[in-house]
Design goal:
There is one protein chain. This protein has eleven helices and nine strands. The protein is an alpha/beta fold. The strands form two sheets. A seven-stranded mixed sheet has the order 5-4-3-6-7-9-8, with helices on both faces. It has a two-stranded antiparallel ribbon with strand order 1-2. Strand 8 and strand 9 form a beta hairpin.
Length: 281
């Protein structure tokens, strides 16, 4: 088995995979249906297991996302079902949950909305970590919706078919929401990205020449939904450190606007509080 892992690691490294050994071990663990930590307990592979492993390694060497091959993506304490048609959540998005937790835990029964929910990563994480919350996940893409429902419904998250660009996708919640979270499409068109990103739905990744085609709609929708002093946290491109806070400032209904870095020191998300519900756009 060590030889198989070594050969797989070398093949993935030659293909430009960023974490070849880790990916090889995760693929082998998937084939064997065990935790990665249990791989040292196996001395040899059956012929069937070896063939299955080689096929997965070959696909990964073609830069098929690891998450598509194993059918799941970890996100905080959740293991989300993902595949073709839905954006694979990234670790940096977990920071949005950290940013919102103090506000969520200060409420007895907070109401939370995840806009541009995709796989439902943010919504599911909040539902797991703040079980007293009522959580809604809003998504319009027909290919993403089956994945969202598969992840959200077992977690008690309410799925809403709606477009953030509509005037009010959740009219019954207007002015009552405590926290809005969003990881919208924000990559500027033409940005060079890894092949794995190209496997994500284009509409979930790219947002016009400057990457800002969708975020203004997220800001306006959040303004409609949030109660006074309600919190919004929006992920953005690392080129948007000034642009996204400026969009909030331009609406005239936000205060305490601040931009925040991810763990690699890059601008990653903007946080703001709703000032006066009467001035909603």
């Amino acid at each position: 088995m060590r030889a198989a892992l070594g050969a797989a690691t070398a093949r993935l490294s030659a293909a430009g995979v960023a974490s070849p050994r880790v990916d090889a071990e995760l693929l082998l663990a998937f084939v064997l249906n065990v935790e990665r930590s249990r791989l040292p307990l196996f001395d040899a592979l059956t012929g069937e297991d070896e063939q299955g492993f080689l096929e997965l390694v070959a696909a990964r060497a073609q830069r098929v996302p690891l998450q598509h091959l194993v059918g799941a993506a970890p996100f905080r304490h959740a293991l989300l079902r993902v595949g073709a048609g839905v954006f694979v959540p990234r670790p940096e998005t977990e920071l949005l949950v950290d940013a919102a937790l103090p506000a969520l835990r200060a409420q007895d029964h907070p109401v939370v909305v995840d806009l541009c929910a995709g796989s439902g990563a943010l919504a599911v994480a909040v539902a797991q970590e703040v079980p007293q919350a009522r959580v809604f996940a809003v998504e319009c893409d027909r290919d993403a919706l089956p994945w969202l429902r598969a992840n959200a419904e077992p977690a008690g998250v309410e799925v809403v078919v709606g477009d953030v660009r509509d005037p009010a996708p959740l009219p019954a919640l207007r002015g009552t929401v405590d926290v809005v979270l969003s990881n919208p499409p924000y990559v500027p068109t033409g940005t060079a990205v890894e092949p794995e990103v190209r496997a994500d739905p284009s509409a979930a990744v790219f947002a016009g020449a400057d990457g800002l085609d969708v975020i203004p709609s997220v800001i306006r929708c959040a303004a409609e939904l949030l109660r006074p002093r309600g919190l919004v946290v929006v992920e953005h491109d690392d080129t948007h450190a000034a642009a996204v806070p400026a969009l909030f400032a331009g609406e005239g209904c936000w205060e305490d606007v601040s931009d925040h870095l991810d763990l690699s020191g890059r601008p990653r998300y903007t946080l703001a509080r709703r000032s006066d519900a009467a001035s909603a756009p």
